[in-house]
Fold this protein.
Amino acid sequence: MRTGGVFPAKPADCPLELNSAALDSTTTTLFDMVGFIQITDADANEPPNSPRLLALLKPQACALGGDVIHAGMSANYTYPGSLHGDDSQHIYMVLRKKGDGAPAVQKF
């Protein structure tokens, strides 16, 4: 989900950093938030930095024009008595360095 400005997409294999520290004022002064990516139905207890999830995340974050991914929310779910297996869900914030090009302006 895109939030904020529309920035040019980057190649699907663009370099990204994963930030798992608490979001603070330094981060928000240096970066613009460009969107969120949610991965649902991850494997049970799968951590947000697993290589499989990062491989799913990378092309989407690059398409948003991101530079840094912040692991915002991770949760493990158990479904007792259900045929649905346990799973994990993760939400990542996609951030872009400020001054790395302005959002596109579209006149209509």
